[in-house]
Structure formats: structure tokens, C-alpha cells
Amino acid sequence: MSDAIEQMVREAYAAFGRGDFDGYMSACTDDWAFHVPGNCRASGDYHGRDGLMQIVATVGAVAGASFREDVHDVVANDTHAIVLAQHSFERDGQPHQYNTVHVYHLRDGRLAECWECPADHLAFEAAWGPK
Q: Is 0.85 topped by the overall pTM?
């Protein structure tokens, strides 16, 4: 089943990259949660489709159309999925880039909860700017 989950995660990220947020949410539980650490504009806890749209709005406000998420790899089993990614964008005319890991807990074969784990918290906070 881990191959099927890996494919589901890759398809969800591809949908997100196309702006197909319903496509992303189709891989998620109704009570999906996303936890972003730190004390920057992106930090917080987001829940369900409304939460996804809140983080999308934040990304748009900070990065506009310049935000890019490149998935380097996906590792998955029946209970967890790990996404290794690089985020890059411009904010206020300055380029920003950092590596991050998304750690997912799965429930009933769907993405239930995710934790953003930036490799460099200082670069992450500098990229998103203060709240």
C-alpha cells in the first residue's frame, strides 16, 4: 500500500502546484490539519479546506505568483508520509529559498495532519517575514 500512498501524495502536491486545491484536499481527511512553526507570517495551525485557503492566501500575500514548491522525494507507509521539498519565492523583491520536510500522519489512507519542518528555521522565518 505504501506505493499507492506515495503516488497519492505526489498527485496531491501536483494538484496544489496547479492551483487545484480541491484536488489536494481530495487526498485529505475532512479534519486535515497543517502546523507551521515559528513566529512568522506563515506560522500557525490550519484546519480543513478553510485552513488550506488561509495558508494559500498567506502565500499569495507574501510571495504572489513567485512561490514554487519543488518536491525532491516522497517516502510513505500506511501511517506516515514524508515529503522532502524546497520552497523558493520572492518577497519584497528579494529571493528566498529553503529546504523543508512535511511530515504527515495518515488516517484511513488519507492525509490527516501535517507538520512543516524547515531545515533552517532562521532562513524560513526570514523568508516569510514577521507577523
A: yes
